Amino acid sequence: MTEPRPLIELSSAGLDLGGTLSLMSNSYAQPILRTADLAVALRVIQQLLGIADTTELDIDYEARISSAPSLTALMELLPDTDWWAEGERDGSSADGDDPLMHLPVRLQSWAMPPALVAPLLRATGRDPATVRWDFSGWPEAPALGLGAGGPRGAFVTLCLNSCDLDLDEPATDHTVFVHVKQVEAERAPWLAAQVGLQVIGELVMAPH
Fold it and tell me: What is the pLDDT of residues 123-145, one digit of tens each?
């Protein structure tokens, strides 16, 4: 039997993922890993995607960018991204402004090819950001009496240089969250156990 192609391949060049479009919706999320080693975080995400239904797979990206070099690199990758000035300041993509004149800014892009993960992580640098993998569903959890989860709660988020999904708590390390439906909250610790981990924080409502 042919082994399935890994959904995440780590190399000296970064990360390469393949996939297609998935649905977006609100969910609840719980942290299962906090580490300063980005490669460790990405391996855990690979394991989670390995047990998920990734018939459809895409990524969402959000960042708070203060660095001009990072912003320049990100705008080259995401020329049509939505952005707006942080705080109560004017300046946004909707107004046709130059983002370099309005740092710090927040960027947000949806439903992108997973192959963009590696260049996005490189371009982000030390600024806080989230990458969210959206896919078709979680597997059955018979011990919990749960069937396969649908796409509404099927996400994994990497919080880069941040502790939280809202990017309000910058950090020197990275956090991995699993997302589930609120009515299936017990699925989160079960998912953590499938990759040899346990939940390390409270279940919270995801911002998107």
Answer: 999 999 999 999 999 999 999 99
